[in-house]
């Protein structure tokens, strides 16, 4: 079967070191976590940024520092999150693509997100999608409910996305779809032809749903953004431990783990550009 692209979601916007001491928050910690995750089998690092107080930030200087450090320490592919955090304005978040990462998230719809609001206004999403095309940044479409696929198809029809589309099916966020096999199957049926996809399951469903996705031929994501625990009652020591566990699932299902060069091809990434 085709190799599995494993993405390591290193930090996220919500958890703190108080939740798990292994969570990387400084640029140096994030870069070291990316390198360790790459060594454990991840070919993509999903990157959120934190400021000196550990809060989510879209500060371009911090972003450039993190990206430079990751590139210095490992060949892992960088997927920069424009989701950033619920309290960071969309207008600040969208500027991150000016650093020209190989990939960046494009969240198509506004939604309730736990106790907050994840704001992605249609006009801003269209503007960000167009700018990503201009810069040659691959859009990673984060789908929190099956209806979000419909808006992505609208963007494709409007010429704001380039096929093959790359989807992340996110399950388990309160306000989005629950982490169930039924929701995964329903959403997969709505994806356009040639779509590339991975499953993201938040919390205790992380291992079960990613294993199902791998068995179905998809890619998968893990990391301390998605689950703080290696197993019930046992905190994951770091991102690499979660990646190693998922790589073991891949091998058990007789699907090899994708190398970085294989992931570039599978994800149809544009050529690498120097960071300005």
List keywords for this structure.
single chain; 276 residues; alpha/beta; TIM Barrel; eight-stranded parallel β-barrel; two-stranded antiparallel ribbon; 9 helices; 18% strand
Question: What does this protein structure show overall?
Answer:
The structure is a single chain. By secondary structure, the protein is α/β, with parallel strands linked by helices. It has helices spanning 27-40, 60-73, 90-93, 122-135, 147-157, 181-190, 206-215, 239-252, 260-266, and strands at residues 6-9, 44-47, 77-80, 103-106, 111-113, 116-118, 138-143, 166-171, 196-201, 219-222, 229-231, 234-235. The chain has one domain: Aldolase class I (TIM Barrel), CATH 3.20.20. Helix content is 36%, strand content 18%. The strands form 3 sheets. It has an 8-stranded parallel β-barrel with strand order 1-2-3-4-7-8-9-10, surrounded by 8 helices. The mean pLDDT is 96.
Please outline what is shown here.
The chain is α/β, with parallel strands linked by helices. The chain has nine helices and twelve strands.
- Cα radius of gyration in angstroms: 17 Å
Count of individual helical segments: 9
Global outline: globular
Percent strand: 15-25%
Q: Can you summarize the main beta sheet?
A: 8 strands, parallel, barrel
- The structure class reads alpha/beta
* CATH topology description: TIM Barrel
Helix content: 25-40%
The CATH superfamily label reads: Aldolase class I
Based on the coordinates given, report the CATH architecture: Alpha-Beta Barrel
Q: How many E strands? A: 12
Q: How far is the N terminus from the C terminus?
A: 38 Å
| Mean of all residue-level pLDDT scores | 96
CATH top level class name: Alpha Beta
Q: What's the assembly state of these chains?
A: single chain
Estimate nothing, just give the exact number of structural domains.
Answer: 1
